[in-house]
Hints:
The complex is a heterodimer of chains A (216) and B (194).
Chain A: H1 3-21, H2 27-39, H3 41-58, H4 71-81, H5 83-88, H6 93-117, E1 138-146, H7 152-160, E2 165-170, E3 176-182, H8 187-198, E4 203-212
Helix pairs in contact in A: 1-2, 1-3, 2-3
Chain B: H1 3-16, H2 20-42, H3 45-62, H4 72-91, H5 102-110, H6 113-116, H7 119-128, H8 132-143, H9 148-155, H10 159-179
Helix pairs in contact in B: 1-2, 2-3, 2-4, 3-4, 4-8, 4-9, 7-10, 8-10, 9-10
Amino acid sequence: xxxxxxxxxxxxxxxxxxxxxxxxxxxxxxxxxxxxxxxxxxxxxxxxxxxxxxxxxxxxxxxxxxxxxxxxxxxxxxxxxxxxxxxxxxxxxxxxxxxxxxxxxxxxxxxxxxxxxxxxxxxxxxxxxxxxxxxxxxxxxxxxxxxxxxxxxxxxxxxxxxxxxxxxxxxxxxxxxxxxxxxxxxxxxxxxxxxxxxxxxxxxxxxxxxxxxxxx
Amino acid sequence: xxxxxxxxxxxxxxxxxxxxxxxxxxxxxxxxxxxxxxxxxxxxxxxxxxxxxxxxxxxxxxxxxxxxxxxxxxxxxxxxxxxxxxxxxxxxxxxxxxxxxxxxxxxxxxxxxxxxxxxxxxxxxxxxxxxxxxxxxxxxxxxxxxxxxxxxxxxxxxxxxxxxxxxxxxxxxxxxxxxxxxxxxxxxxxxxxx
Lengths: 216, 194
C-alpha cells in the first residue's frame, strides 16, 4: 500500500479500532481496518493500546456476587410511594415551570454575586433569569484556557467532547469562550463541569464566568 | 429487527401498561448485566445495587415513552449511563480498581509501581482515573459491547463525540502509564504518540 493511501485512511481506521475489537463493525469495515492495521505501524500501536484497554475492562479477576432481588420488591417501592409517582408525570406544567423558575433565579442570583465578586475578569452584563429562559436553557459562558502547544485542531477536538456546547469563539490569545447551554444547573453541577473539563489533556483551566439569556 | 429486540419491545409495551409479569421478564434479562456493569464502574456493591434498582425503576416508570428508535438494550443502558454519570458526579467517587475496595485502591497508587502491580493492574487503575464520561464510554464499548452508533444513542451524543472520547481515553491511559513509570509493553509503542 502506498504511503498516501495509508495516510488517507489512517484517521478513519484508528477511530474504528474499538469497534473492531468489540466485534460490532460490519464485515467489510472490519476487513478494511484489519488490512490497514497490517500495513501501518502507528495504527498497530493504537490497536495494541486499545487491546490492553479492552482486556483490562474484561479481565477483572473479581466477579461480583450478583444479588437476586425480586422484581416485586422494586414494584413494591413504586407502589408504596405509589401511584403518586406515576401521577407525578402529569403534574401541572405551571407548577413545574414555577419550581424551575425559582431554581434558575436562585442559581442566577448566586452566580451573579460570585461574578460580581470576581468582576474584573469579565465585562459581561448579568441579567436576572426568568422563566422565559427555561424553554431553550441558558448559555453559560465557559472560559477555556489551553496549555501551550495545543493546536487549533486539538482545541476543536477538546471542545467537541464537551457536552451541551452550542457555540464557541476564539480570542486573540487563542483561548476559547464556549457557550454551554444548561437548564437550571446547580452550582455543584457547574463546578463539576469545570472540573471534568480541566481533567482533559491539553486544558489548562476552565471557568464559568457568565451566563447569558437567549436572545429573543 | 432481531428476535431478542422484538421480544423485548413487546415486553416493554406491556410494561407501559403496568404489566408486572412483563416487568419481571425484563428484570431477569437486565439485572445481572446492569449490576455487574455498575459494580465495575463504582467498585461498590451497595452503589451498584442501588443504581441497578434505580435504572429498573426508571424503566418501569418511563416504558411508555420509548419510541422504538433504538434497540431496547441501548435505551436501558442509556438510562444506566445517565444514572451512573449523575452518581459519579454527585458523590465525586474516586473510582476504584475493579475488584478492589477504596482503601486498597488508594494504597495501590502509592506502592512501588514496577514491583507490586502487573501492567494490567495499572491499565485498570488508569481506567479508574479517566474522566467519568470517558470511563463510561469505554465500559459501554468494551464491557457491554455496544456499537459506535448504539453508544452514541445511549450517551445522547454524536458518533464523532463517542469516537473522540475513546481516542482521549486511550491517550489518557497511555499518559497515565507513562507518568506512573510503568514500562512500555512493546518497543513499537514508543513511536506512537500523537
